[in-house]
Amino acid sequence: MRLTAVLAAFLLVACTPALGRPQAKPSAAPSSTAAADAGLLAFVPVAEKFVEDHRGLKFKTSVKVTFLADAEFNQELGKTNGTDPTGYATEAKVLHALGLLDGLPDLAQAEQSLQDSSVIGFYDPKTKQLFVRGVEAKASVRHVLVHELTHALQDQWFSIDRTLSNEDESEIAFRTLVEGDAVRIENEYISVLSQADKSQIQAANNAQGGLPPGIPDILLELDSFPYQVGPSFTEAVISRGQERLDAAFTTPPTSTAQVIHPDLFLAGRNPASVDFPAANGTVIDKGVLGEFGLDLILERLYSRGEVTRSEVQAIASNWAGDRYIAWDQGSQTCVRTRFLMGGPQATAGLVGVLRKFAGDHPDTTVEGSGPVLFTACA
């Protein structure tokens, strides 16, 4: 989906470990690294050494680290990121047609609001600068520094600021690798902290208690995926050795199926090649829904009691490949996806659940028996 590429660029190396539960924010003052306490500044080389020892690589150059209080941090975040309103508006129409979004809200504004409340650190691979929200040497600030320094180290060795295809899942799969690696090192740091420090981190996680109003669930699901799936993926890869993890940054996964099921990636099994279906109008978007996108659709059916959890898992895990294309048709947007599944049983299962989807969405058709052509308009 286009939005996974938009989000990958928007949050490629941001630390958002508690999406859905924004981090506690420091007080309005002090406001800069110059005002950061001595303990926090002294921790920078300690964090660098920890990252080097646990990631198995050495920093090639020093990293500029800036600690900021809330307002100044959000200013830097806004300057570094920025949103593509047109891209978000197109994606809103696609997500709505697929039953993943109610109405057509301003996704760009919702995403900006979400990140202002939940991002607590980020590394900018273009300027090679690292920013952390917080100026006190609390554990809740220190673990963010470890996470972001891991990104800086990744960038120095593998260049994480790269252009990837937005017509498949390369962006979200690569981001899952990048974030999973950083969360893995961050978790190793947290694991050696005292119970008091762990409690302080948990208290900071819980302090804000809620999200800004009006954040669609789909944004949380898309934002959270790399952090939820990435750590187990990188653990599986590094179990084959440090060199195998490093090689993954050179030849990264290209599908969500590969990061959900690391054995596929480790065995070199790529998604099947699927032709784009024909559009009945001017194309506004095209790409791959992937196993993750299919799972999101099936989860909506599960939440309404129309399919079982075992059906969702059996069907999604047998995704073999897809391509979708979208076009505007009068006041509606239509999305047509050609799905290829891993065998006749999985294909029949997919047809069955997509027909249940069609029962809730009148302008939907399900055709074919392998590949399956699924057209949804809304």
Secondary structure blueprint with pairings:
Elements lengths: L1 H9 L27 H18 L8 E5 L1 H11 L4 H13 L9 H12 L2 E4 L4 E5 L5 H20 L11 H22 L3 H13 L9 H22 L3 H9 L5 H5 L1 H5 L16 E5 L2 H14 L5 H8 L2 E11 L2 E10 L2 H17 L3 E4 L4 E6 L1
Parallel strand pairs: 1-3
Antiparallel strand pairs: 2-3, 4-5, 5-6, 6-8, 7-8
Helix pairs in contact: 1-7, 2-6, 6-7, 7-9, 13-14
Task: Summarize the structure in short.
The chain is α+β, with helices and mostly antiparallel strands and about 375 residues long. Helix content is about 50%, strand content about 15%. The two termini are about 15 Å apart.
Protein model, in words:
This protein is of the alpha+beta class and 378 residues long. The protein has 15 helices and eight strands. It has helices at 2-10, 38-55, 70-80, 85-97, 107-118, 139-158, 170-191, 195-207, 217-238, 242-250, 256-260, 262-266, 290-303, 309-316, 344-360, and strands at residues 64-68, 121-124, 129-133, 283-287, 319-329, 332-341, 364-367, 372-377. Strands 4-5-6-8-7 form a five-stranded antiparallel sheet. Strands 1-3-2 form a three-stranded mixed sheet. Helix 6 (139-158) crosses helix 7, helix 7 packs across helix 9 (217-238) and helix 13 packs antiparallel against helix 14. Mean pLDDT is 90; it is low at 8-12 and 17-31.
Number of strands: 8
Radius of gyration: 21 Å
> How much is the average pLDDT?
90
Helix content: 40-55%
Low-confidence stretches: 8-12, 17-31
- Main beta-sheet strand count, sense and barrel state: 5 strands, antiparallel
Give the SSE order as H and E letters: HHEHHHEEHHHHHHHEHHEEHEE
Shape: globular
User: Helical region count?
Assistant: 15
N→C terminal distance? 17 Å
Side by side, the strands of the main sheet go 4-5-6-8-7
Q: Briefly note the structural class of the backbone.
A: alpha+beta
Beta-strand content estimate: 5-15%
